[in-house]
Design a protein that fits this description.
The structure holds two protein chains of two kinds. Chain A folds into two domains: about 160 residues, no CATH class; about 140 residues, Beta Barrel (Cyclophilin). Chain A is about 15% helix and about 30% strand. In chain A, the strands form four sheets. Chain A has a seven-stranded mixed beta barrel. In chain A, strands 7-6-9-4-1-11 form a six-stranded antiparallel beta sheet, with no helix packed on it. In chain A, α1 runs parallel beside α4. The two termini of chain A are about 25 Å apart. By secondary structure, chain B is mostly beta strands. Chain B has one domain: RNA polymerase II/Efflux pump adaptor protein, barrel-sandwich hybrid domain (OB fold (Dihydrolipoamide Acetyltransferase, E2P), Beta Barrel), CATH 2.40.50. Chain B has no helices and eight strands. In chain B, the strands form two sheets. A four-stranded antiparallel beta sheet of chain B has the order 1-8-6-3, with no helix packed on it. A four-stranded antiparallel beta sheet of chain B has the order 5-4-2-7, with no helix packed on it. In chain B, a hairpin with a 2-residue loop joins β4 and β5. Chain B is globular, with a radius of gyration of 11 Å. The N and C termini of chain B lie close together (about 5 Å). The chains are: A alpha+beta, B mainly beta. At the A-B interface, loops of A face loops of B. Chain A: It comes from Rhodalgimonas zhirmunskyi. Chain A: One of its GO terms (molecular function) is ATP binding. Chain A: This is Biotin-dependent carboxyltransferase family protein. Chain A: Keywords: ATP-binding, Hydrolase, Nucleotide-binding. Chain B: Keywords: Biotin, Fatty acid biosynthesis, Fatty acid metabolism, Lipid biosynthesis, Lipid metabolism.
Chain lengths: ~325, ~80
């Protein structure tokens, strides 16, 4: 069974839950930007939750099926069609051999996840099928999918149509999107006013936001506490002696535009990070369109862990719903 | 009158580069596949192409403005 890509959309790539265990060597985590939506899509079609899916951003691809399969589309909201007939989002449906899956314009959110029963079975690289184009790892020859590609799948017919994730469990960002932040090791570099301003201001997603990092604009520039330039650090007040970056950490080069490091980000460098977006909210970033309004909200470790538990609980409820 | 819609969200530009003239001016002929503007997103510029032939009437979205998917960018008289 293969998926014939008739139109790839924009930077559509094969993603799973990511590439574990290589971040310390500079190999990014990789994997779906919205791992919640990827897991849900896989559950709907009866796959392992970490099976490889297609992640499409802002535009849907057009795909012809060579064999009948169960399919589900989660994440971003846009009309889904099989040979022109509309299908429900966050629900399983059947695509028969010879039929074509296609999409209309994006209505909300940013990234859609297309799960196919049996999963996409391109070769693994370093334990994952996730595509990391800059490092030419995973996916189809380490790149995004192109027209003419034929993607192999596990080939099972799956559980068929009629499985659905209830509305209350279809997680998406609010308006403005609220991203919870745990202040980090370098918080002391900011003046009190700058620290408060970061959380007071409304920011907007910059158009250059991508899988490496989500950049934000529109808030006041951050002022730094005066210091003596440490040996090995750059001259700009936002520079540090090179350090590690965590998933979700927020760097602000020059103090002007915060960048939240996401799945394909580097693992270290010479910019201070004021803190990190909590793991529970990283999925939401994957659903932000350019120019979307965002507020950062300060939380402590207890609240971050509570939010993580809540997200896990929602996934557990989907598991129960779908049996 | 046919509308040309943005296929994706981003920033809309009517010119190939800041120093050049807009892709189309009122009265210009439009063929299917002609580029009428650019959408910038994720450090990439995506060409917006006409899906109808006719005579260009006007840009509806402003140069450099944020647009959403499905938003009208320009009008073509067919």
């Amino acid at each position: 069974m293969t998926l014939k890509i008739k139109n790839p959309g924009l930077a559509t790539s094969i993603q799973d839950l990511g590439r574990k265990g290589y971040f310390h060597l500079g190999i990014p985590l990789g994997g779906a930007m919205d791992r919640y939506a990827l897991r849900a899509a896989n559950m709907l079609v009866g796959n392992d939750e970490g099976a490889a899916c297609l992640e499409a951003v802002f535009m849907g691809p057009e795909i012809e099926f060579t064999q009948t399969a169960t399919v589900a589309v989660t994440g971003a909201q846009l009309p889904i069609k099989v040979d022109g007939e509309y299908q429900e989002p966050w629900s399983s449906f059947v695509v028969k051999a010879g039929q074509t899956l296609s999409f209309e314009f994006l209505q909300a959110g940013a990234r859609l996840y297309i799960a196919v029963s049996g999963g996409i079975t391109t070769p693994e690289a370093l334990g994952s099928r996730s595509t990391y184009p800059i490092g030419s790892l995973g996916g189809v020859d380490g790149r995004a999918v192109q027209a003419g590609d034929e993607l192999p799948t596990g080939g099972s017919e799956g559980p068929g149509a009629g499985r659905t994730v209830p509305d209350s469990l279809r997680r998406k960002p609010g308006t403005p999107a609220r991203l919870r932040v745990l202040p980090g090791l370098y918080w002391h570099r900011l003046t009190d006013e700058a620290g408060a301003g970061f959380f007071e201001d409304e920011w907007k997603v910059a158009p250059e936001a991508d899988r490496m990092g989500y950049r934000f604009k529109g808030g006041r520039p951050l002022e730094f506490v005066d210091r003596e330039q440490p040996f090995g650090a750059g001259a700009d007040p936002s520079n540090i002696v090179d350090g590690c970056y965590s998933y979700g950490s927020i760097q602000v080069p020059g103090g002007t535009e915060p960048i939240v490091l996401h799945r394909d980000a580097v693992s270290g460098g010479g910019y201070f990070t004021l803190g990190a977006v909590i793991s529970a909210d990283m999925d939401l970033i994957g659903q932000l369109q350019p120019h979307t309004a965002v507020k950062f909200e300060k939380v402590d470790m207890a609240q971050a862990l509570e939010a993580r538990k809540e997200r896990k609980g929602m996934l557990a409820r989907i598991r129960e719903e779908l049996g | 009158m046919a509308q040309i819609l943005s296929p994706l969200p981003g920033t809309f530009y009517v010119k190939p580069s800041p120093d050049e003239a807009p892709y189309k001016a009122a009265g210009d002929a439009v063929a299917v596949g002609d580029t009428i503007g650019l959408i910038e997103v994720m450090k990439t510029f995506i060409e917006v192409k006409a899906e109808v032939a006719g005579t260009f009437s006007a840009y509806v979205a402003e140069d450099g403005s944020p647009v959403t998917a499905g938003q009208e960018l320009a009008e073509v008289a067919v």
